[in-house]
Each structure stands twice: as structure tokens, then as C-alpha cells.
Specification:
- With 434 residues, the protein is α+β, with helices and mostly antiparallel strands.
- It is built from 18 helices and twelve strands.
- The chain has helices spanning 66-69, 98-102, 105-123, 130-151, 163-173, 178-194, 205-215, 222-241, 268-276, 281-294, 300-304, 308-311, 338-346, 356-369, 379-391, 396-403, 408-414, 419-432, and strands spanning 12-13, 17-20, 34-37, 42-43, 55-60, 72-79, 85-93, 153-154, 157-158, 312-315, 318-324, 331-335.
- Strands 5-6-7 form a three-stranded antiparallel β-sheet. Strands 10-11-12 form a three-stranded antiparallel β-sheet.
- Strand 10 and strand 11 form a beta hairpin.
- The longest helix has 22 residues, at 130-151.
- The N and C termini lie far apart (121 Å).
Length: 434
């Protein structure tokens, strides 16, 4: 039977017929495609297409979530046909490291296993469908399970244990302040969003470097990123000391602390401009709360816990706040300056309540309305108080006590020495020289 093009075979005769090509060497040559037919009924038959062999390859981020979540699934695809495919998840990766992870030994081993299954199915003449593939794959998984469990054990510790779960239990056992606990939980939440430090087995140097890269998305400062690593390093150190992991991944990683961004406190003129501005509703209450913090030095969380009756004492004609910081537990003793007293009197000594996020949202609106060319957040009020105090020659040690700082170095970060202060002191120094 000879093909005659376009996938069609030679004539399929439904009856008795002979088919003979012209042979120029034969004396009894007959013309090409001359047929001796005993019946003239015939039809053309299309040649059946040969089914393509299944393919096995790696795909990344099939559901397109890596751009939002930071990571996507790394999967092995067993391609049976355009409509029929099977996906086997082998891990998670970022857009930066998925190609290297696709070449990892365990992934290549899994691909080889899939190809072996397909070869077995072909030898036994099994239909190339996912159901038949699964029957072989599941049997292979059961055989390998004891070996996998052995690989995931270290010194009696199951390395498939949840890392974030262990961290949360560790945090619960610590005797720490509420503010510190919240901060540590933020780190845990970030680890979960990152998605590559899920188990103890994931605590590798490569994953720590990937975590560092993920943190540097432009939304965090170097100092903030250093703080995240400082917390995670504390947990990996505890795990290594307890001999629950083979090594501390931070032993080969060095994260630089970086430099703090220069603070942008409000000047006295800008504070006065804010005090004199007319607002209403929530914008007015947020402005008043900011002014109270700017003239007492309290952090946002401490303003929300402020109780005039139990936290103040009067010395002479001035009231002072004698309290304890929610974040660190350190004590502070700070004056309630006149603008702050006016806010308390306005609200009958009960400060407005609002979330930090909402307060910052309204402060951005205030910043825009007053044409203040600074990024206005509630924490700026605390920095403004420190700078205001230094500008009026309050010793930095006293400013540290007012803010509740245990180390003067922290106060040096908060407070900005103004040019006007240096100029005033320089004039006084110049006059005092003999």
C-alpha cells in the first residue's frame, strides 16, 4: 500500500481488485495505476495519526501568583495530550531561583521516576492516561516513604516540622511585653508570606539569602530588614543549641545593619501651623492626638493607653506623665506641655481612640492640606518632641528619660540637632571666649 499524500493511503478496494505499477523493464508493462477490477466499488481511507508519547517537564507558577505572594509552585508536568495533563508539586520558588531549583537533585530524580513509569506503561501496553499513571506512582510513593522519613529525621527531630509553628510556641513561652510580642508576630507573618521557610528542613543558607532578597522589595529600610534577620537568627540559634537542626544557616550569612534614614521631624513653625489649622470630624481628632504626642513624646500605642487619673502627677503648676512604655516596659517621666494640656481639656481628659493605620491615613491628608513637604506619620510626633527639647537646650540624657529610652544612642537617632541650635550656641561660645 503506497501513501498518496495528505495522510491518505492507497486505494482500499472493497471487492476484488489488483493494483500494479508500470514496470518499464517488463515486457507486459501496463500503464501506471491501471487496475484490473472485478468490482468497481472502492473508497479512500485516512491513515490514523500516531499518538504522541507523553512528555515530562518542570513548570513554575502555573496559577500566576508569584508576583503577588512572592513565591509560586514548582511542579512536574506529565503531558499526555493538550487536554490531559498531570501536575506533581515538588516545592515553592521565587521568580529569581526557580530555574536553579528545577535542576535540584530531588526534582531531577522525580522526573526520572515519572519517565520510568511511562516506560513501564508503554511496555505493558497500558493506555496513556493519568489514572493508569497514578496507580504506578502511588505504589512507588509507598515503597519510598520509609526512606523519605529517614531523610527527614535529624537526631530524633522530624525536619518536616513547621518552623513557624515552632517559633510561635517559642514566642508564647517568652516573658515579653505585648508590643514586643506583636513585633515578633509580624516577623512570623512575613516568613509565612515568603513561603520558603516552612519546615526545619528549609532552614538553609540559600533560603535565608532568598528571604533577604524577598524582604528588599523597596518597602523596608536596611535597618528594618536587619531587625527581621535578627529575630529569625535568634530562633535558628535556639534550634541549633537544642541540636534540632544540623547547622545554623546564619553561620555563613552576614547581613549588614545599614544606616537609619535621617528623621524628618516637624519644626516649631510647622507644629504651630498644624495647631492653628481648622479641621473637623476624624481629621480634627487625629490632628489633636498628634499634637498631644508631639508635646509629650508619647508613642502612638502609649497614647491609646493613656489614663490621666492614674498616670499623671502634678509638680508645681505642671503635670507630668509617669508611666511605663508598652513596647519595651521601660519607665518614662515626661512633661505635659501647654499645647498637649489644651488637647486633654478639649476632650475632658479622655484622648480619642483610633487605629495607627487609620491615624496615618488621615495624617497624609493633613500633610497634603497644609502643604507640609514631609512624610507625615504618627511616629513623627515623637521625633518632633525630641528635636524640640534639644532645640531648647534640654540635655540629651533628660530627653532619653522623657522618651523612655534605656540607651542615649537611641535618643540620638530620634533627635535631630537643628542648625539654629548650633548657631545660637556658637554665638554664645564666641562671646564667652576671652
Amino acid at each position: 500500500m503506497q501513501p498518496i499524500g495528505n495522510g491518505w493511503t492507497s486505494l482500499d478496494i472493497i471487492g476484488q481488485m489488483r493494483y500494479q505499477k508500470c514496470d518499464t523493464t517488463s515486457q507486459n508493462a501496463i500503464p501506471l495505476f491501471q487496475f484490473h477490477l472485478f468490482t468497481t466499488s472502492f473508497r479512500l481511507r485516512k491513515k490514523p495519526k500516531k499518538m504522541k508519547s507523553p512528555k515530562v517537564y518542570v513548570v513554575f507558577d502555573r496559577k500566576h501568583v508569584a508576583s503577588k505572594k512572592g513565591t509560586g509552585k514548582l511542579e512536574i508536568c506529565v503531558y499526555f495530550s493538550r487536554q490531559v495533563r498531570k501536575f506533581i508539586t515538588v516545592g515553592k520558588a521565587t521568580i529569581y531561583d526557580w530555574e536553579s531549583k528545577a535542576q535540584a537533585a530531588d526534582v531531577l530524580e522525580k522526573i526520572e521516576e515519572c519517565n520510568k513509569i511511562l516506560s513501564v506503561m508503554e511496555v505493558f501496553g497500558e493506555e496513556m492516561i493519568p489514572a493508569n499513571f497514578d496507580s504506578h506512582y502511588l505504589r512507588m510513593e509507598k515503597k519510598e516513604k520509609p526512606e523519605v522519613q529517614k531523610k527527614n529525621m535529624y537526631n530524633g527531630t522530624d525536619l518536616s516540622m513547621s518552623f513557624t509553628g515552632w517559633v510561635e510556641k517559642y514566642i508564647q513561652s517568652e516573658d515579653i511585653r505585648i508590643g514586643t510580642r506583636k513585633h515578633k508576630q509580624c516577623v512570623v507573618d512575613a516568613i509565612r508570606r515568603f513561603g520558603q521557610l516552612e519546615t526545619l528542613a528549609d532552614l538553609t543558607t540559600a533560603n535565608i539569602m532568598a528571604f533577604d532578597h524577598w524582604l528588599r522589595d523597596g518597602t523596608r529600610t536596611d535597618v528594618t530588614i536587619y531587625g527581621y534577620h535578627k529575630n529569625v537568627k535568634c530562633y535558628t540559634k535556639q534550634l541549633r543549641m537544642a541540636d534540632m537542626i544540623p547547622y545554623d544557616p546564619y553561620n555563613k550569612v552576614k547581613i549588614k545593619r545599614g544606616k537609619c534614614k535621617e528623621r524628618q521631624p516637624l519644626s516649631e513653625k510647622e507644629l504651630k501651623k498644624m495647631r492653628d489649622a481648622i479641621f473637623d470630624g476624624k481629621m480634627e481628632r487625629v490632628r489633636d492626638l498628634f499634637i498631644f504626642a508631639a508635646y509629650t513624646g508619647l508613642a502612638f500605642c502609649d497614647t491609646q493607653l493613656f489614663d490621666f487619673a492614674t498616670m499623671t502627677e502634678k509638680v508645681g503648676k505642671m503635670f507630668y506623665i509617669n508611666g511605663e512604655r508598652l513596647k519595651t516596659g521601660s519607665t518614662f517621666f515626661t512633661p505635659i506641655l501647654q499645647p498637649a494640656m489644651e488637647v486633654l481639656e478639649k476632650y475632658s481628659y479622655q484622648l480619642p481612640k483610633i487605629s495607627n493605620q487609620k491615624a496615618n491615613d488621615y495624617l497624609h491628608l493633613i500633610q497634603e492640606k497644609l502643604n507640609i513637604n514631609k512624610n507625615l506619620t504618627f511616629h513623627v510626633a515623637r521625633h518632633s518632641f525630641a528635636t524640640l527639647a534639644l532645640a531648647h537646650d534640654v540635655p540629651i540624657e533628660n530627653v532619653a528619660r522623657m522618651l523612655g529610652h534605656q540607651d542615649v544612642k537611641t535618643t540620638q537617632i530620634y533627635a535631630k540637632v537643628l542648625h539654629s541650635t548650633i548657631e545660637r550656641h556658637s554665638i554664645a561660645l564666641s562671646k564667652s571666649i576671652l
